[in-house]
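Attaching the record inline, Q. Sequence:
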Amino acid sequence: MLTQLVIKNFTIVDQLELDIPTGMTAITGETGAGKSIMLDALGLALGERTDSTIVRNGADKTEILATFELSNCFEAQAWLKAKQLESEYENECILRRVVSREGRSRSYINGSPSPLQDLRELGSLLLEIHGQHAHHSLLKKDCHRQLLDEYGQLTPLYQQLVTTYKKWQRKTQQLEIITRQSEEQQAKQQLLEYQLSELATLELHEGEVDALEKEQKLLSNIDSLQQSCQQVIGICSESESANLLQLLNHSLQVLSSLNTDNQQLLEAQQLLINAQIQVEEAESSLQQVIHQSQADPQHLQEIEHRLSCIYDIARKHRIHPTELVAFQQQLEDELNHLAASDELIAELETTTKKLADEYFQLAVKLSKKRQLAANKLSKAVTSEINRLGMPQGQFEVKIDAISSTKPLASGLDSIEFLVTANPGQPLRPIQKVASGGELSRISLAIQVTTAQTSTTPTLIFDEVDVGISGATAEVVGSLLRQIGNQGQVLCVTHLPQVASQGHHHFNVKKAIKNNTTFTQIETLTPTGKVSEIARLLGGVKLTDQTLAYAEEMLLNAQTN
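Structure, as predicted:
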C-alpha cells in the first residue's frame, strides 16, 4: 500500500509531500490544474521513461520518492528478498527517482541504485493503474486472455505454462539445427579424422619444437663453438708468448718477493690467487664443452628433417609450430563433440517429448480453470454493464479449443470477449459491436470487476468515468468505494457522484507566485469536501442549494 509520496521540482510542482490513506481517495480539481500530476509522478517512481522536460523551470533536478507498506504484499516481499533489496525497516519499501536537467536519470530501491526494469517489475506488484484510455486495449484478443487469467488468478499457472513452452521451444530449435547439420557434420568429421591422423603420425609433444630448434642451432654452429673455446683456452694457458696463467704466476712471484706485512698487498696477492683458480676452472669447463660438442651430421640431418615436417603441417593449418599440440587437442575435442551428436539428438528428442507432455498437462489444467473463470467473469461483467446504463447488455467470454499437436505460446485456448448492447441481437466480438461510449462503459465494468480480485494493494483509476453521468456515475462511485473498503483506491475524477463516494478527498489547485505557476494538492476537511462537491455540481458560484445537495451526497455515501 502506498503510504507517502514526495514530489520535488516536477513540471509545475515545487515541493509536495502527501500522506496517502487507505480506502478510496478522490482527486479533483479545475480543468488544467494538474490532477494527473500525482499519477505521472508515481509512474516516474515506478520506472516509466522520461526526459529533462519534466524538470521544473529554474530547478536542477526532479526527485520523486514513493513509500509503500508491504505487510500484506507477499509477492513484493519475496521479490525484494530475492534481489537482496530489503529495507532496514520491516515491511517498508522506498522507491526513489532522480532526473537531472541534463537528462541523466538515476533510480533507487530502498537506497540501492537499481535499473529501471527492476522498478517496473517491483512496481507491477505494488500498484495498478487503470487509465481513461484502457478501453482501447479491449480491441486486442491478447488483452482478453490476460484479463481472464488475472481475474481467475491463473497468472502463476500461465507463467508456468509459458516457461515450459520456452524450454520446449529452445530444445526443439536445438534439435532442428543439429538434425539439419548432420550431413555437414559427417563431411567435417571425415576432415577432422584425416587431420588428426596426420598429427598423430607426427607424435609431437609439448615443448619439442623449442627443444629441436635449440639443438639444431647448437649442432649447426658446433665448429665455430669449438674454435672459439680453443681460442679462449689458448689465451688462458696454451699461448707460448703470453697467457693468463703465466702472467698471474709472474705477478704472484713479484709480490711474494717483497716479503712484507702490508695488508693491502696481502689482499691483492689473495685476489690474484683466486683469479688463477677461476681461470683454471674456466679452462676446464671449456675443455669439457669441446669434448662434449662433437659434430654429428647424421643427427643434425634427422633434426632438420623432423623440423621440416613440423613446419610443413603448421603452414598447412596456418598456425605457429608451437601451437600444433594445442591444435591437435582442439581437433580431438571437435571430433568427440561430433561423435556425440547422435547421442545428443536422441537426448534432445527425449527431452522435447517430456517437455511437450508436461506442457499439454499444464495446458489442459489451465483450459479447465479458464472455463470456470470465464463463466464467472461473464456473469459479473454482465451484471456491472447492466448497472452502468446498459440494462439489456450481455457480456460473454468465449473460449474455443485450439487443435494443435505442438505446444503454443499462450495455451490451447482462443479467448475472445463477446457483447451485445441491445435485446434480440446476437453476441458478437466486442470490437465489432460496441460504440465508443458503450466500449468505455464495458471497459469500466471489466476494470471494476477484475479490480475486486486483484492482489495488487493499490489501485488507481485515472478518469475512467469519462462519458458517463447521472445515476451511472453514482453506481461507478459506489463500486470504487466498495473496492476501497478492502484496500486502497486513488481515483482522479470530474464527477461529483464519484468524488462524493471517497473516504478521503485531495483537491488540486494552481497558484501563482512571483509570476511562476505552481500546482498544489491539499487534503480536504469535511467542510472542504462539501464545497468541492458543490463546485463540481454547480460551477463557479456556490449556492445554498448546491451546498445542501453536496452534503446530502456525502451523507448518502457514508451510509451506503
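The first helix runs from residue 37 to 45. The two ends are 25 Å apart (CA to CA).

More tomorrow.
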